């Protein structure tokens, strides 16, 4: 195509592969983040998809630039590619292809993997193939690899502390519902304040038109935590009371449903039970009806292979025809035969 750069096709194909990679991120990485919430039925799968779509976009918009900068230029030494930018372009495209294939393959087999680990490993591989091991910025790369091993340990400790506090402060309290209701305002204060702090302190640096003096740390701290405090207060009134009414209605509805089921089971147990030669209860009629007659059914002995008449109760609502047996037996030399004729 005249008038277009020579390597435009790499950018076009890379963009298409980027959408495929984003699909894999949603299928694996986002699924990891929301698996506990959906499995515990805190939110529905549809709500999880909507929440992930909104906040994944906001996270990438406000806080993604710093991570992108690390992946783009700190994993390998860019000086090796100053005279050959097309190699970097092709290398990033192949990294996307490799990461997409691995990510979708892992998703197919139900393996939770990290998309960051996947793409970083792909970039290391392409740079080693293009310019050798010396092209890798091992100082930064080692920090990234250490974070891979440290993050599960650190988050495991934090998760242990948080769950321990929730268990002993809320779940084991005399009234866990009220304790959780009021504790939620504290959780809102901490989570929203922390997120807003990172957006103001880190995210605004990614936009050149923001003034540094306005978003200085002395303004960021009170502003971010002040917003978190306001959100916590808004939970106490008016949003919290409204949510409490809705939850109470749902709880009462569940209790009524359980009570109705238990009452039905108790009534069923209280009904007279039918004996073999007595009357049985027709499920379509409250009146008693005669018990079905037992019908002779032919079976064969496992060892002798002789026909055996078995008394089996005919299904009251079935279509089993009555059978009678005319049984004759005779013996021959060292063998035993049995003959049964069935007449209807």
What does this structure look like?
The chain is mainly α and 344 residues long. Helix content is 63%, strand content 11%. It is built from 7 helices and 6 strands, in the order αααααααββββββ. It has helices at residues 8-39, 45-73, 85-108, 115-131, 138-171, 176-203, 217-270, and strands at 279-281, 288-290, 294-300, 307-313, 324-332, 335-343. The strands form 3 sheets. A two-stranded antiparallel ribbon has the order 1-2. A two-stranded antiparallel ribbon has the order 3-4. A two-stranded antiparallel sheet has the order 5-6. Strand 3 (294-300) and strand 4 form a beta hairpin. Helix 3 (85-108) packs antiparallel against helix 4. The chain is elongated and about 85 Å long. The N and C termini lie far apart (86 Å). Mean pLDDT is 78; it is low at 311-344.
Summary tags:
single chain; 344 residues; mainly alpha; two-stranded antiparallel sheet; two-stranded antiparallel ribbon; 7 helices; elongated
């Amino acid at each position: 195509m005249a008038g277009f750069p020579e390597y435009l096709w790499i950018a076009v194909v890379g963009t298409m592969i980027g959408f495929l990679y984003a699909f894999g991120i949603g299928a694996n990485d986002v699924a990891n983040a929301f698996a506990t919430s959906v499995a515990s039925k805190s939110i529905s799968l549809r709500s999880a998809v909507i929440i992930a779509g909104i906040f994944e976009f906001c996270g990438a918009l406000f806080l993604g630039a710093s991570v992108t900068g690390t992946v783009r230029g700190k994993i390998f030494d860019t000086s090796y590619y100053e005279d050959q930018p097309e190699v970097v372009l092709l290398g990033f495209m192949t990294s996307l292809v490799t990461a997409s294939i691995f990510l979708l393959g892992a998703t197919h087999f139900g393996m939770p993997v990290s998309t960051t680990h996947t793409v970083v490993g792909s970039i290391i591989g392409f740079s080693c193939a293009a310019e050798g091991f010396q092209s890798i910025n091992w100082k930064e790369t080692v920090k990234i690899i250490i974070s891979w091993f440290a993050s599960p340990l650190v988050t495991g400790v934090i998760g242990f502390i948080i769950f321990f506090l929730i268990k002993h402060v809320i779940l084991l309290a005399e009234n866990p519902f009220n304790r959780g209701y009021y504790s939620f305002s504290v959780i809102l204060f901490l989570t929203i304040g922390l997120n807003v702090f990172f957006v103001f302190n880190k995210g605004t640096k990614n936009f050149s038109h923001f003034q540094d003096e306005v978003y200085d740390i002395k303004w960021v701290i009170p502003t971010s935590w002040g917003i978190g405090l306001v959100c916590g207060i808004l939970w106490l009134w008016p949003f919290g009371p409204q949510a409490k009414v809705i939850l109470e209605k749902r709880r009462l509805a569940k209790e009524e449903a359980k009570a109705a089921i238990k009452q039905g089971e108790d009534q069923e147990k209280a009904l007279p039970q039918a004996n073999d030669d007595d009357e049985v209860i027709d499920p379509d009629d409250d009146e008693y009806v005669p018990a079905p007659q037992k019908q002779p059914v032919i079976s064969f002995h496992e060892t002798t292979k002789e026909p055996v008449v078995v008394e089996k109760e005919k299904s009251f609502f079935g279509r089993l025809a009555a059978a009678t047996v005319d049984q004759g037996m005779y013996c021959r030399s060292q063998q035993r035969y049995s003959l049964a004729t069935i007449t209807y």
